[in-house]
Amino acid sequence: MPGCRRFVLSVGMVSLAMAAVTGLVMAIVAPWNTCFPLQMPAAWHTAAWDEPEHDPAEAQDPLVPDVAVTMRDGRRFVGQLVARSEREVAIESEGAVLRFQSRDVERVETLEPVSVVYARMREAIADNDSEQLLLLTEWLMNKRRYRSALREVEGVLSRDPGNPQAERLKLMLEAQIRLLESPEAPASRTSVRARRGYPLLTPAQINLIKVYELDLRRPGRLVVRRETIDRMIAQYAMHELIPASREGREALYRKPAAELVDLMFRLQARDLYGEVEVLDHPPSLRRFRDDVHREWLFRGCASNKCHGGEEAGRLWLATDQPNSDATIYTNFLVIERFRLPDGTPLINYDIPGESVLLQMALPAADSKRPHPAIREGSREIPWRGVLRGTHDDRYEKTLAWIRSMYKPRHEYPIEFDPPEPRGWTAGKP
What we know:
By secondary structure, the protein is α+β, with helices and mostly antiparallel strands. Among the domains are: 13-116, SH3 type barrels (Roll), CATH 2.30.30.100; 222-278, no CATH class; 283-404, no CATH class. Helices cover 38% and strands 10% of the residues. The protein contains 16 helices and nine strands. It has helices at residues 13-19, 23-29, 114-124, 130-142, 146-159, 164-181, 192-195, 203-212, 226-235, 246-252, 257-267, 270-273, 283-301, 325-337, 356-359, 393-404; strands spanning 66-71, 76-84, 88-93, 96-101, 105-110, 222-223, 277-278, 374-376, 379-381. A five-stranded antiparallel β-sheet has the order 4-3-2-1-5, with no helix packed on it. Strands 6-7 form a two-stranded antiparallel ribbon. Strands 8-9 form a two-stranded antiparallel sheet. A hairpin with a 2-residue loop joins β3 (88-93) and β4. α4 packs antiparallel against α5 (146-159).
């Protein structure tokens, strides 16, 4: 089973990772992401661009800026400061309150608001630099600044008509803005689908997937509680792998967690797998998160008119809180289990390059199994592809992710039934 590397939870990591593709953006952002006072300067309340107040398509800077908590072991967490004392630091991130012992915290830094970072980034990019501007557009989309993102895309198209990436982003943004401006749009950040009760995986289900994808050569941080060892000894007392002597059994309690998990795997004690706490992401699932979900799957396929909305095909991806574990792991399980009407899976673990997931992400001319045209109202728009071709770095990263998954594959013992969108019609993937 593929193993774990250290997981660094950071709400802003997506944007920073994308910006790192170009040294320019990182050079712009980095100098202002450290050592700001906890009281936000009054000037930060002014948006970098004039937008209507309470615009549903343009997220606003929080009244209290986000902070980054850097731990002594190098991990970094981003969220809103809830409390800080001599004993602990608490922040709210992705709807959860994270608490840290002060002795384990290296530093707490206040981050610049998105509008200020955006203004600096935009000022440093030339108007004719389409590549940089489209990277900036995707960064804005991740920050829920859809109106600003659309303005940047329209600027690119005015100077570079027919740019396929800009046209695709423009369609996505216009659909997203229409959704947010519709009378039925939710007043909060909760998506339309969340209001209808679209199911997301629970923390226990996410943890179980992690267990099944562990690589014990690089196990990361694991927790096996004493009660779990008690149950393992009691249930498998007659197995040859469980020591017969009292001394041997007592020694099990002193073993590293990874060795205990290895023993569970050899015992095939599947009833105990869910009791193992996996604190980090296995490398294979981290690859999915960073190189697939964040790089192209979510941005390219989860728009309202594509696989993130109810008017598209049968494949429906979760979109609420796109950087949360619940959304990422739910979308992984959805594409892992999805089958076309002829029974073909989206992922071909034996021949990764033949995966429908990849073939339908390619331009139609380069694909063995082209994606159908996209319906926009009464029009059908030819599919241009999310990936530029088999030479695209994202294509190669997706191949590497598929190859990194544990083989032979197994069925996760998780009951999960994704909903079918209202607009699904037979024949659409």
